[in-house]
Amino acid sequence: MKTFTHLKGYAQKLKKDICVLYLSYKDSRTPLFAKIVAICVVAYAFSPIDLIPDFIPILGYLDDLILVPLGISLALKLIPDRIIKENRKIAEHTKKNGKPKNWFVGILFIMIWILFAVWIGNLLLGLFS
């Protein structure tokens, strides 16, 4: 249980870096590949819909506890340290009113779940026909 608490604390620390990633992917000095990774991580983190819904036992929290922190960690490693340091200072001085929502990514995940449900429905109909 102590490992779970440690992992959760680590994930919360990395989530604070979302603002830093947001500022970094807008920075013209950030390399293109790092921008692409940062954009994907920020878009997913700001999405109102998770790829794995939280109501699914255990699996629902995998993205919050593992996928998002790993993406943040990877993106931060790809961005040069001087850019990260500058954007950390900016992020500390900037007060945000909650996290923005990325409805495009949310709609994308809803469409994925609808397609998945249709696919499962077709499989079930084929079994019972």
Automatic annotation (TrEMBL):
Principal localisation: membrane
Subcellular location: Endomembrane system
The keyword Ribonucleoprotein appears for this protein: no
Membrane topology reported for the UniProt record: Multi-pass membrane protein
Record keywords: Membrane, Transmembrane, Transmembrane helix
Domain DUF1232: 34-70
Residue intervals passing through the bilayer: 32-52, 58-79, 103-128
Listed InterPro entries: DUF1232
Protein name: Uncharacterized membrane protein YkvA (DUF1232 family)
Organism: Fictibacillus halophilus
Taxonomic classification: Bacteria, Bacillati, Bacillota, Bacilli, Bacillales
